[in-house]
What does this fold into?
Amino acid sequence: MGKTYEGIDDGLKAFIEKQHVFFVGSAPSGADGHVNVSPKGLDSLRVLSATQIAYLDFVGSGVETIAHLRDNSRICVMFCAFEGPPRIVRLHGRGVAVEPGNEHFDVLRAGFPPAPPGGVRSVIVVDVTRVSDSCGYGVPHLRFEGDRGQLAAWAERKGPDGLEKYRHEKNARSIDGAPALKSQPRT
It folds into this structure.
């Protein structure tokens, strides 16, 4: 049923780009610490090459993925077909959070649609080392009704100063106390 691929071919790229939601898994090194799985949506992921993807990391209540990437760079991104034929695709690899102020941030950020000012805290870039799929027979059919507008509205209400304060208070460390965001930029 499952298959491993050399990289992200055109068929996998089309499947990935069609999905409205994806999931990101990461974990700290060692036996302690919390494993994290985060759902992601909006128009926030790009396939950059057969072995590299990037996605926008929006300001949020947790910052686990960034902390885990700083610790060990391990990451898995999973896509499930909720509409159409069943399929699950997993991209395992090594990632890095490219924050504002990094020389590559503006170039990476330009590949995505506009977001609320200050709403993007980094671009996660993943060097994909393993590409696989599986049947997805147990994944239910779900119908996409549209993106939620709450994130953009929340970021706009906070404004640049409020978002900077929020990142400083909530995004400097993971729930396990590991360092996360390096920068606290004013946007």
Observations:
- The longest strand covers residues 120-134.
- Residues 3-138+147-170 form a domain with the Pnp Oxidase; Chain A fold (CATH 2.30.110.10).
- The mean pLDDT is 93.
